[in-house]
Amino acid sequence: MKAVDVKTLSDEDLVFKIVETNNTHLFAILYDRFSKVVYNKCYGFSKSKEEAEDLTHDVFIRLFVKLRTFKGNSKFSTWLYSFTYNFCVNYVQRNGHKKKEKITVVTDQIKDENVYDDIDDATLFELKSEKLAKVLTMIDPSEKMILLMKYQDDMTIKEIQEFLKIGESAVKMRIKRAKQKVLRTYEEL
Description:
The chain has 189 residues and is mainly alpha-helical. It is 74% helix and 0% strand.
């Protein structure tokens, strides 16, 4: 296959060619196409550019091994997005790099405080970015993931529903609870 032909291949065809030939040069082309997207996802889960670069590197190492599991049932970019998110969530959960500052909230207080029930998006956007970044390191990775999907990646409820394989009402409830947790944690800082 000529180098010129490779550049015109679709992402899916390129992946199938890599799996078929195990060609690292073809994988480098895939890397060039998606490294910035993967880096941006990893950066959302990391504390620094260096950590995001390390995570990106790790994602692509794991990807080379797992590429055979891509069956073409969805676009490769969607599959890679899911792969990267899962990798980052697992990384955050299993590594001690993330400070787990547990915040204990008495359940009676939650029932009495309806101030968090209907948090509009504007309220979240008004939070100071440095303090918000700290809050995002303190909440559960799955809560952080759903908020990043909604607000950083501009995914629709339907897209999140398909990605997480849960119902629409479950997506809305998880987003609502994650927003409530962010606001409570933000105010306690």
